[in-house]
Amino acid sequence: MDNLFILLILPAISAIILAFIKTSSAKWAALVLSLIQLGLTLPFICNFVPDASIQFSQSWNWISSLGIQFQIGLDGISLPMLILTNGLIPLIILASFGHKQKGGFYGLVSFMQAGLVLVFISLDAFSFYIGWEAALIPIYFICALWGDGNRISINLKFFVYTFFGSLLMLIAIVYLYQQTGGRDMSWATLTKLDLTDGAQNWVFWAFFIAFAIKIPLFPLHSWQPDTYTHAPSTGTMLLSGIMLKMGLFGLLRWLLPLTPEAVLRYGHIALIMGLIGVVYGSIIAFKMKDAKRLIAYSSIAHVGLIAAGIFSLTQEGIQGAILQMINHGISVVGLFFAIDIIQQRTGTRNLDELGGLANNMPILAITFLIIIMGAVGLPLTNGFIGEFLLLKGIFSGSGNGVWYTVIGGTTLILAAVYMLRLFQKTMLGQINDSHVHVADIKGYEVVVLSIIVILIILIGVLPNGVLHLSEASVSQLLQQIK
Q: Which of 138, 155, 213, 361 could form a disulfide bond with 144, CB atoms 3.0-4.6 angstroms apart?
């Protein structure tokens, strides 16, 4: 089966089905439907030829009067993101089993999955923008309805930030559409436009700001820590594990090939923004007492390094970015799930109120430590190869590569400090008297964390599977820029 459209329509249909299930069986229905989606993804992985071509492409006339077609397809840059999305959604749904959610909640998750898939497989600007917005709507309601604290105002800030970026991108898309004579919005046509320097400059910044907000890059990050902290655990996993990758993917799919000359002019600014985020996020993470907030700031640091790798404009930097996008998604979902388990067992995620949990929760302690090692980038874990390639790309990408690499490399040192502090404050030391009877993980919790641990080790030992998928497409992308 090579009908790519089925991967888009299935989660949309699943969302409608799940919305009508009012009982606790909704979680099982959601899990089964997400596993079917994952199963249907496998033929595309198996039949994919790792060259630079667009494969499994489909197109239909959509709005004929405007010359707008609906076009989808896969290449070595989009396929890893499709695998990440359809692979993590079942894990995230399974991780939510302890919260007794109803069908409406899982319907929003499936609807968001449809939007994410559309973003990653779109080959025209119109459908890309629709997917971009479609993924935002359900996560807003997930965070606003099931979050905690001052969630309404926090999510309003999140919505305003992202909607502002979306508006800038829409203006740029309309401008590019006009340059084709109002005939075409396809990726293939738009990336071949011969734009003036002035046009490239403002289109670059319009797209870049939209993507930088979603990632988020410093200083456009201020919505992220509060949103991650007060969202329900499922929402936080969706935001950090998959949704922020939309912005990073947008840089590769749209920004770089659309405005190659502006990228060469201003890419170093974006690279520096990413590196500032590395240091800033790491330092703030070290000071956090809320475990969830600590991971939120660590995410700013990690995605800052990924963005810097993309703007190194090197084969190693961009391939490292694609690999690390997958690695970050796996590790951050595991970290947030482990913190969610701790909070459910103890009633707190304040590090000053925790400690000694390894005595009663040895299985959680072992899996949590392995996930932390992956996030830190220990050799033979998934994070090591990704960060090595990113730093190598940054080193060889410009005349200031040595200094940029030194700054980027601080993420390895600082991440080890705040992540090991997180482990020490939760698992080691004297246990709180009120936590002496907490139970270790079992059932679905063991399944989720075991799969994440296996992936961390498997990718760490055998990273070539992902790197081989993207190599030819990244080489072609660099040829378009240079």
A: 155
How far, in Å, CA of 431 to CA of 86, rounded?
39
367 Cβ neighbours under 8 A, 6+ residues apart: 334, 338, 441, 449, 450, 452, 453
Q: What is the pLDDT of residues 207-259, one digit of tens each?
A: 999 999 988 888 888 888 888 888 888 888 998 899 999 999 999 999 999 99
The string of pLDDT tens digits covering residues 32-61 is 999 999 999 999 999 988 888 889 888 888
93 with 154: CB under 8 angstroms?
Answer: no
Please tell me the distance from the alpha carbon of residue 43 to that of residue 64, in angstroms, as a whole number.
32
CA distances from 396 to 80, 140, 444, 477 (A): 25, 40, 44, 18
DSSP-derived 3-state class of residue 349: coil
Give the amino acid at 88: L
Read off the tokens for 248. 């990073």
Sign of the CA dihedral running 227, 271, 73, 330:
negative
Do 77 and 470 meet the contact criterion of CB atoms below 8 Å apart? yes
User: How big is the chain by its Cα radius of gyration, in Å?
Assistant: 21
